[in-house]
Design goal:
Elements: H1 3-10, H2 12-24, E1 31-35, H3 40-51, E2 55-59, H4 67-75, E3 79-80, H5 88-100, E4 105-108, H6 112-119, E5 127-130, H7 133-139, H8 143-146, E6 150-152, H9 157-180, E7 188-192, H10 196-207, E8 211-215, H11 219-227, H12 235-240, E9 244-247, E10 268-271, H13 281-286, E11 290-297, E12 300-305, E13 310-314, H14 332-351, E14 359-362, H15 365-381
Parallel strand pairs: 1-2, 1-4, 2-3, 4-5, 5-6, 6-14, 7-8, 7-9, 9-10, 10-13
Antiparallel strand pairs: 11-12, 12-13
Helix pairs in contact: 1-3, 2-3, 2-14, 3-14, 5-6, 9-10, 9-14, 14-15
């Protein structure tokens, strides 16, 4: 059994949805343009949409595209533009290649496609979906210009707890252990951000016997961290005492060269946010206090400071559970739920049942209920 077959067989909810789409053909005659992390679980989603009649043109995200997934999708009739890349210029060219195909629906991940669509709008776009909080924040100020149905998957409560908390959380801990081969026990871990992803990262590091500190500017989320038993010192103290620093905010420049004076010798920096901008890796690498840089092993970059300290950055600041050696991403079950939400939301937009006023808004409650009920029904039969 190949890895793709293992994933496909494990995505039971998507499998049942695909069987329904075989009959109903909700995307017949439509082209779907996608920009998403290309790995086996997303392949299961794209093949589900294809079985619903869609013609699909896709690219992967920056530094997370897996070559074997590209080959697999192409072998199954899906047009994939480009391949794995860490070059923003090449990525931009590939994104524009998707839009050149004039898709009727857009499945976006980070707002890259919709933002570029606005630079050169075309007739025929019905609407689409956005997967991430980062993309929602990017597209929200543009909603009046988009003026088409655009549902934000990450604003679904299912996505919040099933994927963000209980998939990215353990996946980040797994990535730390896989890449560094170090234990978590007793390490002081500082987590920047206490939304649904940050909460999961903090909880799972604590479950793996780390001492966890949270940096969160929003008072209500900071209170939640306190009530969850997390330490919430000021920012400088949180950095100064950390063995491991994890960013999960969705915002740029959370950790920068200005923080170099604060890092403990041997501190490890890692990002679990969607975009590789939370840790300013170029700024850190080129700061005048950095005497030399080593690529120690696959996935680890070490900065040697002139005062003798060493700082380690995992996967060049890219999303750590989808980069580095043998990246597996989130658990299959969590993505089965999230991608079924994607499929059902695109189905609703394609059918015309989502008004254009529903632009950059959460998943409708009826779709949440449909997906949750279907998952529970399958669990009962297991």
């Amino acid at each position: 059994m190949s890895r793709f077959e293992w994933v496909s067989d494990s995505c039971r909810l998507l499998w049942h949805t695909a069987a329904e789409f075989d009959r109903t053909q909700p995307f017949k005659g439509l082209r779907i343009g996608t920009g998403i992390h290309l790995e086996p679980k997303t392949a299961a989603l794209l093949l589900t949409l294809q079985r619903g009649g869609a013609d699909i043109v896709s690219i992967g995200n920056l530094n997370s595209t897996q070559a074997e997934t590209v080959d697999y999708l192409r072998a199954h009739g899906i047009d994939v533009i480009g391949g794995p890349t860490a070059d923003p210029v090449e990525q931009d060219r590939n994104l524009r290649g998707v839009l050149a195909a004039r898709p009727d629906l857009i499945l976006d991940n980070g707002g890259d496609l919709f933002a570029r669509y606005l630079e050169d709008p075309y007739d025929g776009l019905i609407g689409g979906t956005e997967e991430t909080t980062s993309g929602r924040d990017r597209l929200l100020p543009l909603r009046d210009r988009i003026a088409k149905p655009l549902l934000v998957i990450n604003d679904s409560p299912i996505k919040q707890f099933a994927e963000n908390t209980h998939a990215v959380g353990p996946g980040t801990v797994e990535a730390f252990m896989r890449i560094t081969n170090r234990m978590t026990n007793g390490r002081r871990v500082t987590v920047f951000g206490y939304g649904s992803v940050g909460r999961g990262v903090a909880m799972y590091f604590r479950n793996f016997f780390s001492v966890v500190t949270v940096v969160e500017p929003q008072p209500v989320l900071q209170l939640r961290a306190v009530l969850d038993g997390m330490e919430v010192p000021d920012r400088a103290e949180a950095i100064r005492t950390a063995d491991v620093i994890v960013t999960v905010t969705g915002a740029p420049d959370i950790v920068t060269a200005a923080d170099l004076r604060l890092f403990k010798d041997g501190a490890i920096l890692m990002n679990s946010g969607h975009l590789p901008w939370e840790i300013d890796v170029p700024g850190l690498r080129t700061d005048r206090s950095v005497a030399s840089t080593d690529e120690v092993v696959d996935g680890i970059t070490t900065l040697h400071l002139s005062d003798g300290r060493a700082i380690h950055i995992l996967t060049h600041g890219h999303m750590v559970n989808l980069a580095g050696p043998r990246p597996l991403g989130n658990s299959i079950e969590s993505m089965d739920l999230g991608f079924t939400l994607q499929a059902r939301c695109l189905e609703a937009v394609a059918s015309g049942s989502v008004p254009s006023s529903s632009c950059v808004v959460p998943v409708p409650a009826a779709i949440d209920d449909l997906v949750a009920s279907a998952y529970v029904a399958l669990a009962r039969r297991a």
